[in-house]
Design brief:
With 274 residues, the protein is α+β, with helices and mostly antiparallel strands. It folds into 2 domains: 46 residues, Uridine Diphospho-n-acetylenolpyruvylglucosamine Reductase, domain 2, CATH 3.30.43.10; 210 residues, Uridine Diphospho-n-acetylenolpyruvylglucosamine Reductase, domain 3 (2-Layer Sandwich). Helices cover 32% and strands 24% of the residues. Strands 4-5-10-6-7 form a 5-stranded antiparallel β-sheet. A 4-stranded antiparallel β-sheet has the order 11-12-13-14, with helices on both faces. Strands 1-3-2 form a 3-stranded parallel β-sheet, with helices on one face. The N and C termini lie far apart (57 Å).
Length: 274
């Protein structure tokens, strides 16, 4: 394989990273590298420069402010999984992170990298969308409903750096996925959350981009129970289809896993009346 040249930069501050990104228009941000590096190996990406933001202290934090858990972009998956604060406030989020990849992936991959990359089979986008999170960048705040725009595509501009994700603490929530046995990516993953603004259901892995099911949300708003979604059939049109599972199979899994996610949410909250 013929190598191609690129420069590597490791800024010590967000301001330094911003300056590098402005000066190097063909650069790519590097956090954990579990999405970008494989893409570079396959020649799907060939940036002229890499800007490694993984060591910026201002991007590495987990804190609670009122009814919100804020997680910095450079926080690694295992740190979220090990956080007592996250376990107590949003157990479903901690559970989701514990199922990402394997220990090596969890010790290198970052929250910001996963959310910004928006892989169709990634777990984090389901939590972000179901919890109605807010994505903060060095320039603005973006609601989850406006952030994910398509396969590997988000609302981030070229000069934006994702700095943190603010997760509202739900009344109850549950996440269940059917994982590819090799990669541990979600063939289908369903995150159900009863939030202050209502019930939200987000689905990852099934389609080219994470999405919400308004039909399931309406049903669960009337009765937060597994049976409420048992008869809701998701249409397979537009679903992912590959050697691991057809579009019809994935559509069927959505309903199966939604029922299980509701059951998980009920158990975590102590029952139907939480």
């Amino acid at each position: 394989m013929i190598p191609y040249p690129f420069t590597y930069h490791r800024p010590n501050s967000l301001a330094e990273a911003e300056a590098l990104l402005a000066r190097l228009p063909d650069a790519k941000l590097l956090a954990g590298g579990h999405s970008l590096i494989p893409a570079m190996k396959l020649r799907l990406a060939s940036p002229a420069a890499l800007i490694d933001i993984s060591r910026i202290a201002d991007l590495s934090f987990i804190r609670r402010a009122g009814d919100t858990i804020s997680i910095g972009a450079a926080v690694r998956h295992f740190e979220v999984a090990d956080s007592e604060m996250v376990h107590k406030a949003i157990a479903a989020l901690a559970s989701l992170v514990e199922e990402i990849g394997d220990p090596a992936v969890r010790h290198m991959g970052t929250v910001g990298g996963s959310v910004a990359n928006n892989d169709p089979a990634a777990d984090y986008p389901a939590a972000v969308l179901a919890l109605g999170a807010t994505i903060r960048t060095n320039q603005r705040s973006i609601s989850a409903d406006d952030f994910f725009t398509g396969m590997f595509s988000t609302a981030l501009e070229d000069t934006e750096i994702l700095t943190a994700v603010d997760f509202p603490i739900p009344k109850r929530a549950g996440y269940v996925k059917f994982a590819n046995p090799a990669s541990r990516y979600a063939m289908v993953g369903v995150f159900v959350a009863e939030t202050a603004g209502g019930v939200r259901v987000a689905i990852t892995g099934a389609a080219p981009c994470v999405f919400r099911s308004s039909e399931m949300e309406t049903a669960l708003a009337q009765s937060f129970a597994p049976d409420a979604v048992a008869s809701i059939a998701i249409r397979p049109e537009g679903m992912n289809s590959d050697i691991h599972g057809s579009a019809e199979y994935r559509a069927h899994l959505v309903t199966v896993l939604a029922k299980r996610a509701v059951a998980v949410a009920l158990r975590s909250s102590g029952g139907p009346h939480g």
